[in-house]
Amino acid sequence: MAEAPFESVGKAFVNHYYATFDSNRANLANLYQEQSMFTWEGEKFLGAAAIAQKLTTLPFQQCAHQITSIDCQPTSGEGVLVFVCGNLKVEGEAADRPPLKYSQSFVLMPLPGGGGYWVLNDIFRLNYG
């Protein structure tokens, strides 16, 4: 059975997002718009500029995401809900320290005129315990 279009969109977005996050977080800014909302560990940021500021001032410079699962669903307005679980290895941590576990969800909306998607909502949480 062929993969549903929303699955393809969600998986392609996740691959692009984390590759960019791990190499140059500043380049993530163009995925957000002024009505975008980002929540990092309970702290909320509204708008592309505030989100980019937060992403580029996180307390670590380098990290590597290892995705363990991606779940996608279609939303109204031809959007895509994406839920990601994975492991996060942060630069400077002891090599024998296990990676941090995280969950992140995105609501993607189509760009006006087509040709891509932008992030309406983004929620990130570390999973402790």
UniProtKB/TrEMBL annotation:
Q: What GO CC terms are in its UniProt record? A: cytoplasm; nuclear envelope
Q: Name one Pfam family in it.
A: NTF2
For this chain's UniProt record, which GO biological process terms are given?
Answer: mRNA transport; protein import into nucleus
Which CDD domains does this entry report, sorted A to Z? NTF2 (cd00780)
Please give the SUPFAM superfamilies that the UniProt record associates with this protein.
Answer: NTF2-like
Give the top-rank taxon of the lineage listed in the UniProt record for this protein. Eukaryota
The family database entries (InterPro entries) matched by this protein are listed as:
NTF2, NTF2-like_dom_sf, NTF2_dom, Nuclear_transport_factor_2_euk
Chief localization class?
cytoplasm
Task: Give the NTF2 domain ranges.
Answer: 9-126
Q: Which UniProt keywords apply?
A: Cytoplasm, Nucleus, Protein transport, Transport
> Which locations, inside or outside the cell, does it occupy?
Cytoplasm; Nucleus
Functionally, this protein is described as follows: Has a role in nuclear-cytoplasmic transport of proteins and mRNAs.
Name of this protein: Nuclear transport factor 2
Origin organism is Hemiselmis andersenii (Cryptophyte alga)
